[in-house]
Design brief:
Helix 9 (193-200) crosses helix 10 (204-210). The chain is 60% helix and 0% strand. The protein has helices at residues 24-31, 35-44, 58-70, 75-82, 86-108, 123-139, 147-156, 163-186, 193-200, 204-210, 215-224, 238-252. The termini are far apart.
Length: 253
């Protein structure tokens, strides 16, 4: 099978030469679809068209037909994914999300070996669907992704709360805790982690995990300088800066 025969449909315009065949760059990538090869081709040809689809097609569907049927998926319906049909991609994205939720519920109920028992869809099948969807979108140059596929991809990449996102949220809460402590100290109150936890409506142990020994007290001392004795924020010249900016904007307008 030649590169041009990778898909059974007519070739799109993107990544093709004047004769309607895949261009040299696209052929070079499809012969060796590694990120190393792609980086080399892209760096050497920053403006070149490289069509990147490598998954999908009738041959793959024939091979996967029994596997799809095992999980109640009709190959006749699934073929629309290879056509970059947005409705089909959305429908199967929701289907696989439902299967993920069902598997979690079974696991919470104490069920085990779910994939082997046919009670859960294997991750590799979900990932194959995602790659086929993305490749079809690339092949047909239809790069508007529906949100159902976005949510499914995000779930497979770590869910709605990835490590960096969680770390950022904890950092913000930790700072808020220290600022609250600074406001209390400015009013003559010696803040405790339990007191801050109550104000933030979280468990004391949660706040304790945010700070190393002595770190909370040091941060409180720093933030206490932000507040007046009545607990209000000090001016720091901010109001004057805002007024100056407003005046400058009026004069320039």
């Amino acid at each position: 099978m030649t590169v041009e025969d990778n898909h059974p449909w007519a070739l799109p315009d993107f990544g093709c030469d004047l004769d309607g065949n895949f261009n040299v760059l696209t052929k070079a990538y499809k012969r060796n679809p590694t990120i190393e090869n792609y980086l080399t081709l892209r760096r050497e040809n920053p403006e070149g068209e490289i069509e990147v689809a490598i998954h999908g097609g009738i041959d793959q569907l024939y091979y996967m037909e029994s596997e799809l049927a095992r999980y109640g998926i009709s190959a006749d319906e699934f073929v629309s994914v290879f056509d970059a049909d947005n409705h089909a991609i959305s429908r199967f994205s929701l289907f696989f999300m439902e299967k993920i939720v069902e598997a979690r519920d079974l696991a919470k109920a104490g069920q085990t070996q779910l994939v082997r028992r046919g009670l859960a869809v294997p991750d590799k099948l979900i990932d194959w669907f995602i790659t086929c969807s993305l490749d079809a979108m690339s092949y047909y140059d239809q790069l508007e992704m529906n949100r159902d596929l976005i949510v499914l991809i995000r779930e497979r990449l770590g869910g709605p709360f990835p490590e960096y996102e969680t770390g950022s949220e904890i950092h913000q809460k930790k700072q808020n805790a220290a600022i609250m402590g600074g406001a209390l100290k400015a009013q003559g109150v010696k803040p405790s982690l339990r007191q801050i936890a109550k104000l933030m409506d979280v468990a004391p142990t949660t706040v304790m995990r945010w700070f190393e020994p002595g770190e909370f007290e040091t941060a409180v001392e720093r933030y206490a300088k932000w507040f007046n004795p009545d607990g209000t924020l000090r001016d720091f010249g901010l109001n004057r800066m805002l007024q100056t900016n407003k005046s400058a904007q009026r004069e320039s307008g």
